[in-house]
Amino acid sequence: MFKISASSLNHLMKMAGLVDRSRVLRILNHVLIRTDQGRVVATATDLVMWIRVEADAEVIEPGAVAIPREMSARLSGISGELWIRGDGRTVAIEGMAFEAALEGMDPEDFPSFPVVEGPEIRLETASFREAFEAVAFAADRSEPLSGVLMEGNGSTFAIVASDGYRLAAKTMPIASPASFSLAVPKTPLGKVLRAIREKELIMTVGQEHVAFRAGNVAVVIRIAEEFPTQTIRKLLAMEWERTTRIELSRQAVKELRTLLKAAGTGKGIAAAVLTAVPGSLVVRATDWNGFSGTVTVPAVVDGGIDIAINTRFLMDALRFDEITIEATGSETPVRISSDGWVCLVMPMRLNEL
Fold it and tell me: Are 149 and 139 in contact (CB under 8 A)?
């Protein structure tokens, strides 16, 4: 039996709710809450991600209960202190103006939290989150490309995503130099980075899992076994004999975004044809609904080219105020970059537009 504030219990349950629900194992739709030296620890998992959160509590008698995740919604309007006790599968929750009895599950059936051993890397949470958000758009929703590749090389940390048609990579410095390479599913990593509010987190790289610790939160994510790491490395290392380089200012990028947004509101595939001429970039956007729009923006141009890019792909790549576009021809990737960030996009065939 233990006593905990309703707000703390609600926080534990909400954090546990970051884990996806299971359609196979009923126990995975529960939150394991156990006592640990004057504190309570809540754990949830879908066997891809494990999340563990600690909170202060008044422990009368050590024990553990497995509570259905739906309990989080019922606790949202409760305040004050709550007493929680359980005897195996039966759980009772009592407060000043709240009393509930529910059927849980045997806490002994709950999967154990993985122990991850390996090198520890200290990361600035905000920079890590920014790097992830700068590449996550390029990750495919289908396996095995629904993950992101993270690599450490000395004092540099890189995070990369690709869906086979485009690739995005972002590098950032790290305080603790390390060498590692692993791929993890995009969705759980994104949830972790959005939920953590501490300025720094510690990443531990193991053989089968990667762990993150920040404050009273610990998260473990299973490493993706199938991921085209070697292909991605080759794409990043390729040297194209670039014939065109286009540098766009903040205002030019803003005007391009306005045009591409208008072209992308209809159904069907929209295309943007980029024509580089001395001192300017001309972009003509069309879609299958008959929309056609053109914008000419000033640019620093070296070379000339006529190339087509999927409008949504180009819009995704215009996420920084100043960008550089480099291209060789109509059948090789277009390189879009900005200060430690790069995006490779396969062009469309002009004769099909």
Answer: no
